């Protein structure tokens, strides 16, 4: 599959009637979860008719668990970042309790009328659903997913969904951050007018649609997600092994260390299942972790007391500068801005820490836990 160029923020198109006409009727499976809810809300704001399908839709939308479709407002209290200023309030989505892996007559009828069916569900649910969902869709409709690994779902689509357009989206950010200025990896398996319309809608919401092949997506996700998380988690495990208290460290921590502590807190305070999936679901994640371990061994080898160790260390830094290439200055300046914005550390009493942790845990459960067994969990650090 060819890789398309992404549209930059300065020439991002606004949503027009062409996109919404092509994607007028949308079914969001797992729409009671945070990822599905993000897409449902933005589709509504773009003028689409949205049906949320979830085994227990009331968990996130406030709808009753009625068996048939009913209206429910899925808009959040705050306009998601990336929504145009002055946008009208989100409309109402209908909600249907249903199991996408066991499609009944009512759900089959809704899928058959849809222009877009979006699977915002865990990988195993999506893989199990592709064949029967595609069979229920009309030819030329669009089947989309939000999985963080694209290889297996692309193979399933190629095997069982030849009559429909198909595109996989992977928002590389937590839904609470919104689309504005953020990348959305896009793997188009079966191209067509509706697939292109969906990517244009993502751009109109403020996102940057970056087209990739399925293998390329998974390779990059292993580096940007699995490797990054593994480095932060390994840092935390090493700290635990050193037996130094965080309060002691924070009192004297230079900005790089404080930043690493912040990253560690974000991951450690998130949902374990999400970070487990990042490491276990992508078949290329193991190679990323092996590369991390090899990097530590290489660094240790430069510091083993050899006479030429310092020169080799300097050469290694030069190689890393070459790796960053023309982007070195951008990331160096970005780091300086981040360090300048770091708040000063203020020690907490045990009582304050307990209250803060309880408050964070409750908000984390609300934001990051899937609403049902088939709603897609949210990655807090993509």
UniProtKB/TrEMBL annotation:
Instruction: Tell me the Gene3D superfamilies matching this sequence.
Output: 6-phosphogluconate dehydrogenase C-terminal like domain (1.10.3660.10), NAD(P)-binding Rossmann-like Domain (3.40.50.720)
Q: Which keywords, in A-to-Z order, does the entry hold?
A: Oxidoreductase
- The answer, when asked if Nucleus is one of the entry's keywords, is no
Q: Which domain of life is it from?
A: Bacteria
Give the matching InterPro entries.
6-PGluconate_DH-like_C_sf, NAD(P)-bd_dom_sf, PDH_N, Preph/Arog_dehydrog, Prephen_DH
Coiled coil segments of this chain? none
Return the SUPFAM superfamilies for the record. 6-phosphogluconate dehydrogenase C-terminal domain-like (SSF48179), NAD(P)-binding Rossmann-fold domains (SSF51735)
Stretches assigned to the Prephenate/arogenate dehydrogenase domain: 24-336
- What is a GO molecular function of this protein? NAD+ binding
Q: Where is the composition biased (Basic and acidic residues)?
A: 348-365
> What Gene Ontology biological process does one annotation of this record name?
tyrosine biosynthetic process
Q: Where is the composition biased (Low complexity)?
A: 366-382
Region Disordered: list its residue ranges: 346-382
Per the record, the similarity remark reads:
Belongs to the prephenate/arogenate dehydrogenase family.
PANTHER family, per database record: PREPHENATE DEHYDROGENASE, PREPHENATE DEHYDROGENASE [NADP(+)]
Name under which the protein is recorded: Prephenate dehydrogenase
Q: Which organism is it from?
A: Microbispora rosea
